[in-house]
Design goal:
With 593 residues, the protein is an alpha/beta fold. It folds into two domains: 275 residues, Homocysteine-binding-like domain (TIM Barrel), CATH 3.20.20; 279 residues, TIM Barrel, CATH 3.20.20. It contains 22 helices and 18 strands. An eight-stranded parallel beta sheet has the order 1-10-7-6-5-4-3-2. Helix 9 runs parallel beside helix 10 and helix 10 packs across helix 11. The chain starts with a helix and ends with a helix.
């Protein structure tokens, strides 16, 4: 066939097929998750679907391999599914249509080398003679440059199309802004076309294109048939083909040279789209820009941040766990004690050790309103999907909360998983990138973003590299785990030399030997020096608190040259003890000056 670039240039448009997975499921009354396996179990059915799309006018089809990767299938089965998916599509297309090797998103799991996974899939297709590649429904550009370069090294004339999936608000599931992703991909010399697919229907895609503005090079759009509905535990797309086609025509008129359909789009949808793009171009309506009013650009005035930037002082961030039950009086009074005792910001943990407590964001809003204290909620990646996270951040911004600590969060204990399921749309680096994107594109008053740094890690080089990635993604500063050992202090020194952001050194008062042993045995990421543990032998409560003050103040003195402030963690709601420690640290600092 003619080179695909020449075809698009001469015809002005390349029409793709529709949603293989959802169409297969509707025809066979089964789950779309069975679709890729059908390359082996029902190849005739898959070929019939390809032919149904081709018969209505599409000139490009996708192999039935969207979910074919080694996370979903054993390697031998995966290779067979990829091979048969390619051969089925090639038979159906003949010399009348282009066949794209279809590669869907691969989850960035800790046990997965994403680049190796992409290499495995791409190399299978290259060995079969594939020259056109579609990376679709992607939420990030991680490794896209590397894998596109790999394809072009094998075949310089190969055609690489990258299609991102975004919510109507412009964010992907990885928390990335669609405009940044599209422009970066379009500027990549190894990527031939970029675009959008899935998640949104035609009208939402039109709005996304309006927000996006001009993008260099070939642009592709493949919307869903509309919003899904669930009936009888099955998902349906009821979008009417004529309406879908009218939106595809608008997308083409606005500059999309590659168009097609995603979830829910049947041959009827593609047939209607083929007629619509052959008809005279529709009159374009300039919809009023939906830009929200923004306050004056720049960070809102924040006394805590100002103190961190003042070399003459080291402010205190003091952590206070939220209540376990519904009574909030003691928590508020504890916060009042910390405020009056000189805490510059009160941080509230987000369901520590994955056990339900009062919501940290609600609690900081209550403290800010009732006590006028500066606050910093901890926000974990656990238990909130993308929509819930964005909604929460918008609410915190409206409440004029200026600081957030973003952490991955402890996993739900194994015994609880049958009843309580963890939700992890992000890791902490992705969450930081998402909030940074919201800061730049959505929020009238951006957050100061803080992240965690584990100076007790046995392989601190890994933690330091993660911290650098967090800075690259938008972190402004770090709160460290408590420092109890010389090794942790050395790691803190190295962090100071390496990182650009503000660092608050972690201090957790130990109040008894039993407390110290518990921390060493059951709290991940914290190690207490055996010499410290020995000091608490036979100590009563009063003696334990005296030791806590002395040891905490001593550690503050030792870490002072390497930190911009202190992160104090309150044990057992003993806020009066924290006031004593803050007083002692301030007193020692005055003596040293």
């Amino acid at each position: 066939m003619k080179d695909i670039r020449s075809f698009i240039r001469e015809n002005g448009v390349l029409l793709f097929d529709g949603g293989m997975g959802t169409y297969y499921a509707s025809r066979n009354r089964t789950s779309h998750r069975d679709c890729e396996w059908a390359n082996l179990s029902a190849p005739g059915e898959i070929e019939a679907i390809h032919r149904a799309y081709l018969e209505v006018g599409c000139r490009a089809i996708k192999t039935n391999t969207y979910g074919a990767n080694r996370q979903n299938f054993p390697q031998q089965d995966c290779a067979a599914i990829l091979r048969e998916g390619w051969l089925i599509a090639r038979r159906a297309a003949g010399n009348d249509a282009y066949v794209f090797a279809d590669i869907g998103p691969i989850d960035a799991r800790d046990d997965t080398d994403l680049l190796e996974e992409y290499h495995f899939i791409v190399d299978q297709f290259l060995s079969l003679g594939a020259r056109h590649f579609l990376f679709e429904t992607i939420g990030t550009d991680l490794y896209l440059h590397e894998i596109a370069a790999h394809i072009k090294a094998a075949d310089p004339e190969a055609f690489v199309l990258v299609s991102f999936a975004a919510q109507p608000d412009g964010f992907t599931r990885d928390g990335r802004l669609i405009g940044e992703l599209c422009r970066a991909a379009a500027a990549d010399g190894y990527i031939d076309a970029v675009g959008l697919n899935c998640v949104s229907g035609g009208r939402q895609m039109v709005e996304l294109m309006e927000k996006l503005g001009p993008v260099e090079g070939l642009f592709s759009v493949m919307p869903n048939a509309g919003y899904p509905t669930v009936r009888g535990n099955r998902t349906y797309y009821d979008g009417e083909p004529g309406y879908f086609a009218s939106q595809v025509a608008i997308l083409h008129a606005r500059g999309a040279q590659i168009v097609g359909g995603c979830c829910g789009t049947t041959p009827e949808h593609i047939a209607a789209a083929a007629r619509a793009i052959r008809a005279p171009a529709p009159a374009l309506v300039d919809y009023p820009a939906r830009k929200k009013e923004r306050e004056k650009a720049g960070l809102r005035h924040d006394p805590f941040w100002d103190a961190l930037c003042d070399s003459r002082r080291k402010p205190f961030a003091v952590e206070l766990d939220p209540p376990e039950g519904a009574q909030v009086g003691a928590f508020v009074e504890g916060a009042r004690t910390l405020r009056d005792g000189g805490a510059d910001v009160i941080t509230v943990a987000d369901c520590p050790v994955a056990r339900a407590r009062m919501d940290s964001s609600l609690m900081v809003c209550k403290l800010k309103r009732e006590l006028g204290v500066n606050v910093m909620p901890h926000l974990t990646c656990r238990d909130r999907n993308l929509n819930a996270t964005q909604a929460l951040l918008l609410g915190l911004c409206a409440e004029e909360v200026g600081n957030v600590l973003l952490v991955t969060g402890d996993p739900v204990p194994a015994a609880s998983r049958d009843e309580v399921k963890s939700v992890y749309n992000f890791n902490s680096r992705k969450l930081i990138k998402f909030v940074d994107s919201m800061n730049r594109a959505v929020l009238p008053a951006p957050f100061h973003i803080f992240a965690a740094l584990n100076v007790n890690a046995r392989n601190f080089a890994i933690q330091l590299d993660l911290a650098r990635q967090k800075e690259e993604n938008g972190a402004d500063g770090f709160l460290t785990q408590p420092v109890f050992t010389d090794e942790a202090l050395e790691n803190l020194k190295l962090a100071r030399k390496t990182l650009k952001g503000k660092i608050l050194g972690g201090i957790m008062p130990i109040v008894s030997q039993r407390n110290a042993l518990f921390i060493n045995s059951e709290i991940a990421g914290i190690r207490v020096d055996e010499k410290i543990i020995a000091l608490y032998e036979n100590a009563d409560r009063a003696k334990g608190e005296e030791l806590a003050v002395e040891i905490s103040a001593n550690m503050a003195r030792r870490m002072a040259p390497y930190v911009d402030g202190y992160f104090l963690i309150t044990p057992f709601s003993r806020t009066a003890l924290m006031v004593r420690i803050m007083d002692r640290i301030r007193s020692d600092a005055l003596e040293q000056t």
